[in-house]
Amino acid sequence: MCKKIFSIAIFCGLLVGCFDEKGSDANATSEIRGEEEANLSSPPKVPSPITREHNTKVIVKLEVIEKKMEIAKGVEYTFWTFGGTVPGKFIRIKEGDLVEFHLQNHPSSKMPHNIDLHAVTGPGGGAVSSFTLPGHESVFSFKALNPGLFVYHCATAPVGMHIANGMYGLILVEPRGGLPKVDKEYYVMQGDFYTKGKFGKQGYQPFDMEKAIDERPTYVLFNGSSTSMTGDKALTANVGERIRLFVGNGGPNLVSSFHVIGEIFDNVHREGGKNIDHNVQTTLIPAGGATIVDFKVEAPGNLVMVDHSIFRAFNKGALALINVKGNEEKKIYSGKIEDNVYLPEGAAIQEVSEKEKVSTADNLEDQIRLGKNIFSQNCAACHQLDGKGIKGAFPPLANSDWLNENSRRAIEVVKNGLSGSLTVNGEVYDGVMPALGLSDEDIANVLTYVYNSWGNSRKVITPADVKSVPSQSSAGGGH
Ligand SMILES: [Cu+2]
Question: Does the structure show a pLDDT above 90 at 353?
Fold first, then answer.
């Protein structure tokens, strides 16, 4: 090496040129000038691109906070977070930067935490050096040697539990020349969640270790909630714009088949690395991995981000929207997106108002409000949001003569399921309605909602009414 430098020095005759030569083939030698506080953002926002040309010392301050938040409408969960959100704050730095990392664990935390950044080259990705007790701060530093999009996560035992509670996020190490310019950038991260209660079960839900070990998630979510990017929180774009998504997968267990319904990814940085694929429909994101995709939006309407392992999207919450505004371009797309087909749960969620947290009803209005939540999460997929059902498959609950004739029978159906043929408003149905495992109170509320909607008989069903109907949860089924 010495010899080479020396000979180049003689050849070019300029010592400066020789230092340039040396600098360009060794990241580790890039000069660090000055220091600045890092550019962090909460999802779905991404910090703006880095414009400085030189490398600097970047000070990152990330605070761990354990807090209750909504995981789905009317469902609360205790998340452990990097910066108060799931996923944690997005960190944007430049290849060659020196990062001085401050991990702070809020005094109200019950657990110690640490951080393993996949962007770190060194033992544990920083985990050991950053182990931090509640009310403490740890400091360590690392050099960002490789450009790319990297996951960070907590790695304190039990590691799976810390990750399952939402302890992950993304750090982008921009390549020296930066990324190509786009119109909008967003931050999306998938995670799987394990609660004691079933999907949509109202009220506070604790973590379920057994389900986590068995890899049976109750929720699969983008940005920590089934409503993180629906309704007025949907991502936005205008026709003609180029959108870049930084997409991570925190796991802890599932691999994501990331897909945007109604789009094709023009560019995919596979696994967040250097290789770029084109014209990709669905891209795999490993647990603990990430990807950068971009695409131009050509038609107005809702684009739907999903995990294309599709039950996760429609039955476990892995669904989010990009609302594209602009004029229709009939040559590119001549039609209208059917929300009913794509968004049974998502669409329902948007209609429910913000103030619902209580899980026990003490008046009729409450009962109807809670019942509506339960309906949208458990029944609307089949009977439809407007209760009209689907002819030939799912009978109507709106104005149903069968329903209004006998309420005890209706309770039986929701409690124990139903199969065999029945006639509703003159139409014969011969399908199977599964028992959904709802509590007596949930059944009372959902039926009260149904009875007090769509021209039905305005009956009120109490938990005691439901209790008086025997449940046939035991095996054996047919009768
Ligand atoms: Cu932790």
Answer: no
Cα(353) to centroid(ligand 1), Å: 33
Report how far ligand 1's centroid is from the alpha carbon of 160 (Å). Answer: 9
Please report, for residues 50, 51, 253, 315, the alpha-carbon distance to residue 176 in angstroms, rounded to integers and kept in the order given.
10, 10, 33, 42
- Ligand 1 centroid to residue 269 C-alpha, Å: 29
Task: Report CA(66)–ligand 1 centroid distance (Å).
Answer: 9
Distance (Å, rounded) from C-alpha 473 to C-alpha 55?
65
Contacts of 64 (CB under 8 A, 6+ apart): 80, 81, 82, 103, 104, 105, 106, 109, 113, 132, 154, 167
102 CA to middle of ligand 1, Å?
Answer: 15
**C-alpha of residue 79 to centroid of ligand 1, in Å:** 10
pLDDT at 25 over 50: no
Which residues neighbour 16 within 8 Å (Cβ) at sequence distance 6 or greater? none
CA 27 to chain centre: 35
> What's the number of CA atoms in the CB half-sphere (13 Å) around residue 357?
7
Can you tell me the mean pLDDT for 260-285?
A: 96
Amino acid found at 9: A
Q: What is the per-residue pLDDT for 335?
A: 56
Gap from CA of 87 to ligand 1 centroid (Å): 13
Q: Amino acid identity, residue 379?
A: C
Q: Dihedral of the CA atoms 414, 415, 418, 422 (nearest 10)? A: -50
Ligand 1 centroid to residue 111 C-alpha, Å: 7
Average the pLDDT over each of 85-89, 162-166, 252-256, 351-355 and give the range with the smallest value: 351-355
Instruction: With H, G, I as helix, E, B as strand and everything else as coil, classify residue 299.
Output: coil
Does residue 77 carry a pLDDT above 80? yes
Q: Is the pLDDT of residue 475 over 90?
A: no
The CA radius of gyration of the chain, in Å to the nearest whole number, is 27
Tell me the CA–centroid distance for residue 165 and ligand 1, in Å: 8
**Residue 342 vs residue 310, higher pLDDT:** 310
Give the global pTM.
0.64
Nearest to 46 by CA among 90, 83, 106: 90
Distance 187 CA to ligand 1 centre (A): 21
Residues, Cβ < 5 Å to ion ligand 1: 113, 154, 156, 162, 167
C-alpha dihedral (332, 257, 323, 341), degrees to nearest 10: 80
Work out the number of other CB atoms within 10 angstroms of the CB of residue 15. Answer: 11
Reported as a single tens digit per residue, the pLDDT across 415-424 is 998 888 899 9
pLDDT-derived band at 359 (thresholds 50, 70, 90) equals low
Question: Residue 392: what pLDDT?
Answer: 74
Q: Which two tokens stand for residue 383?
A: 């009977």
